[in-house]
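[09:14] KT: can someone run the structure on this one? pasting the chain below
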Amino acid sequence: MLSPSSSLSPHTAKMQLTATSTPHPIFIYVQAINQVLRLLPISNEEPFRGLSSRFVFMGYVGHAHQLSPVYWPEEWLAFAHPPHDILRHVGFLHIVNDSTQYSIYEIESGGSAFLNACRTDICAANLHGGISPIWMLDQLAGVQFNPATYPYGFPPPASPTPAEITAWQTSLPQPSSSQAAFADTLFHQYLDFDYEPSIIEPTSVFDLLPAPTLLDDDNSVPDVMTLVSTQSSGEAESPHPDLPWRSTSRGDILDKGQKLLLKALLVASPWGRSIKLAKYLFIGHFLVGIPVNPFIIPEPVSRQLVTTSFLRALRFNEKTYDELSNEPLTITNDDGSETVVGWSYLRNRFLDFYIDITSELRKITRGSTSTLAGFAANEDEKMQLICRLIIALNSDNKKLIQEAISDMIRTQAFKEVLWAALLRPIAELAEGNVRLADLYPDAIQTWTGCLRKGIVGILITLMYQAFTLQIPSDSTNLKAPDLHPRIMAALDEIYLHPDRFVSFFKVARELPSLQFSPSFRISLHSSSFIFRETNVLVMDPKHRLPKYIVDNKRVRRMKTLKDLEPIDIAFTSDLEVPHARFIFPVPSSGVELPLSYFSKT
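[09:31] RB: done, structure tokens below
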């Protein structure tokens, strides 16, 4: 519960504290009304219980002769700084034996006036370019100081893994706080390309792997969560010697026959389930827009992500790497010799998954820019629109880029791409009850229920790639690694000023609720569940045509726009995807090996 700060007189505050037994006030920013309000927590022991955002500790608010902590949702951090004047900086607080200076703010006029009676002889530069006084805590006689329970933000840094558990047997140590400093600047050549590979036939090693059985028993989730290692890199024991990975192999040591044998081995092996799930965790990391630029990823970071995805999958399946390494995959060759395959081979195949899925999404884009999907009235109009969008996205004019983005997300084509990327059921996971979005539930929508900008950014860039494949080659058009930052810069402004982009956010609020509904089908010889996609045509990437359906008259025909229904917005927390049937219980942070294990020495 939130209470307006302006209504809190000392007497009122005291009454409210007594009613809720809150040890001291906490203030947080509420984007919906653009104000900082007093938090009345549901639980005294867990003041942030029920809130799904990540909160940054900003400093202290002066109010009612008190200094109390103020927290800011990480997603809306830009609103805390100029030219926004929601928080007015009035000075700094210095605590004895603590070298940190904490900012002091006003959230209502005169709220910190009591500080003027406290003499100070010290000042420092503030973020506004001016000079602000510094008050020493031991000089603030008569001022009630309410220390921050979470001075490093919430959720707080995790506690170490118990010393008796070997880190690589449970999971992986947490990386150091900064991963930006590394010398290896090689990039994957696979993440952007000018051609579109053909649909790959089912010859991949992983195509026939068993489906991971995802837990749906709520009682099992805490047990899985407790397995997550949060040991800092400075305290961690050395990982299993197979896990460090300092160079990427581009070749393939297996021939076609050996790959077929390996498929069969994986189906019957405990390696199979974890490899299959890890594949989707790896792909999902890119498609939910977690990397700053998913089209230009340093090789050490990519190797770290592959390994992390695999170990998260192991954790979920309650396996350790030590257990798997004791069951090697041994291929018996035609000449009677044996080839042993392990993680050092399997991990190099993960990069193919990214190529396959992004190629498929570009094909779906091309199918969705047809008259069948309502993109344009005819082929000439379609090409004119595509050229206009390409020109706008290549422009240096941010307004034109924003208009192009707004135009694109309103199309049925964007819905089709979003559905295929994140919201369609994955048949090989938990009998089709899991979508890729469900593996990253905290990355799909903002706390106001809108599709997150990282997802918009990568999907718009992939659609742009598909557009450029439909026109004559033009070397002046930007490539994806260069275009994506421009799109994100335009989206930063859109998400910072939702009042200026009303039509964009009307659509962005609907998009996470794209849904499918199951129905029970009975035939002469069998019965089964089928899924009916209510808001999308479901484009076939190979033929670039909508899905075929059997209508109410039992006529098999191609799905049309008339079969689609309006999106029914489902309101959920930002840690739950609308229409989710499963939430992946192993968090996406705190399980990586330090980047040094993946960098060249």
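[09:33] KT: thanks! The CA atoms of residues 122 and 134 lie 5 Å apart.
[09:34] RB: yep, looked fine to me
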